[in-house]
Amino acid sequence: ITTPPEEPENLILTNITDKTATLTWDAVDNATSYKIEKYYNGKWSSAGSTKAGVTEYTVKSLKTLTDYKFRVIALNKSVKSETSNEVAVTTPYAMTTTITKSGFAITNGYDFAFMFTGKTPQGNIKTIPKTETFQYELIVSASTKTDKNTGELQESISLGTISVTLSADGKTYTAEPILFSKLGTIPNVNLTTLKTIQFQLKVTNPSSTSTSQQASTFYTKVAKLTLPKWFV
Asked: 198 and 143 in contact (C-beta within 8 Å)?
């Protein structure tokens, strides 16, 4: 006789985009596989499966600005467990935004100034049902070192965060330039020794109703710019 497995516990959403949702849950001892189900348009259906020991799954091909629920069932061969807890999410609208380097300067070693322009997407946003507000944050950090193997920043220094808010009327959204500028001083760090500067542009919708912590992050653009020799 095959023993029914316990239901999976602690199902959570770890990442959500406009088209995907990543789920994780606790392993069940005697599970030989897991079945992932999604609730959409009034009914439950299969969204995928994993083998024993695999407790993460990314559901793909989701629709933008759509409500979904997810749950997981453990199987011991063909014997099913009770369903896990359910998690709900509203997929966000995926915006793409570009940033362009306009200027960056270091004076007397410790003072810095930068000015960047960004551009919102052109065209119609017909899927947004109501007026939405989008907040753009430019996060700037720098490093004196990079990892030789991965190229990742080490000893990161924050140079500031700037926010700009724009709105869409639910019908059209015309490309608009966004200006980011900041002056600052880091008295204990000689900025002329910097090797890499990282610019991260994050677009969020503060009114997002999604239950996922990352659901309001629509787009992240990272640009790693190496300082020219004349800065040193």
From this structure: yes
83 - beta bridge partners?
Answer: 73
Q: Cβ neighbours of residue 45 under 8 Å, at least 6 residues apart?
A: 37, 38
Q: Are β-strands 79-83 and 153-154 bridged in parallel, bridged antiparallel, or unpaired?
A: unpaired
* Predicted structure pTM score: 0.54
Q: What is the tens place of the pLDDT at every residue in 41-64?
A: 999 999 999 999 999 999 999 987
With CA atoms as reference, report the closest residue to 75 among 43, 44, 40, 36: 36
Buried b vs exposed e over 126-145: b needs ≥16 C-beta within 10 Å?
A: eebeeebebbbbbbbbbbbe
Cα separation of 88 and 210, whole Å?
8
Phi, psi of 182 (to 5 degrees): -160, 145
**97 touches 166 (CB < 8 A):** no
Q: Which two tokens stand for residue 157?
A: 């220094």
Residues 100/116, Cβ–Cβ less than 8 Å? yes
Of the candidates 102, 138, 112, which has an alpha carbon nearest to the alpha carbon of residue 231?
112
- Read off the pLDDT of each residue in 142-163 and give the average, rounded to a whole number: 66
